[in-house]
Amino acid sequence: MILQDPKYSLNPVMSIGRQIVETLRTHENVGKREARDRAIAMLEAVQIRDAGRVFDLHPHEVSGGMGQRAMIAMMLIAGPELLVADEPTSALDVTVQLEVLGILDKLVAERGMGLIFISHDLRLVSSFCDRVIVMYAGKIVEELAASDLGNAKHPYTQGLLNCMPTLGTNRHPLPVLDCQPEWAL
User: Fold this and answer.
1) 28 CB contacts (<8 Å, ≥6 apart)?
2) Mean pLDDT for each consecutive 10-residue tract of the chain (185 residues)?
3) CA–CA dist 88, 86 (Å, integer)
């Protein structure tokens, strides 16, 4: 599972490399040298330049984007069949966000693994995901292809879409979503 913000998800007193090695050695019986080599290779796989140097850094010594890439490396080192990404780009600026999504997309395709992408950013979801499941109060209220998100039928999904700002329109104030108790049924 990739969590929202690496600054709060990575251990601040352990080097990035040590955390990745710990994850690998928890899942596989490998020696220290092999674990280090595989951790550095995984850092390279998530497009971290000078992975050997970054291996020895602590989370506070790297940018948010690099920390998120390190977190992705740590989650992928054990070779999962399913990756759960909970708002993995919410703490990143748009440029870094697109880079991280590109890395995720490439690695998921190369490894043939499933990805559950959790986000409130419907524009991001519609451009990055194949299928969308909309939940309200812990219940699924709608499931549709990402390409059909603009044609959503459920009032909650429509409300979420309607609350997004759009360029070239004056919508001040933005509409407020009036949630209904029956949506949760």
Assistant:
1) 78
2) 84 96 96 97 93 96 90 92 89 82 88 91 87 91 93 90 79 76 74
3) 5
**How far apart are alpha carbons 28 and 106 in whole angstroms?**
24
Task: Please tell me the pTM assigned to this model.
Answer: 0.81
Can you tell me the distance from the alpha carbon of 125 to that of 37, in angstroms, rounded to the nearest whole number? 34
Q: Identify any residues that bridge with 118 across adjacent strands, giving them in sequence order.
A: 86
Unique residue bearing structure tokens 């919508």: 171
Contact at 8 Å (CB) between 126 and 147?
yes
Q: What six digits make up the tokens of 68?
A: 């998120």
Nearby residues of 47 by Cβ (< 8 Å), 6 or more positions away: 69, 99, 103
Between vectors from CA 45 to CA 41 and to CA 47, what angle results, nearest 5°?
A: 115
CB distance 82 to 111 below 8 Å? no
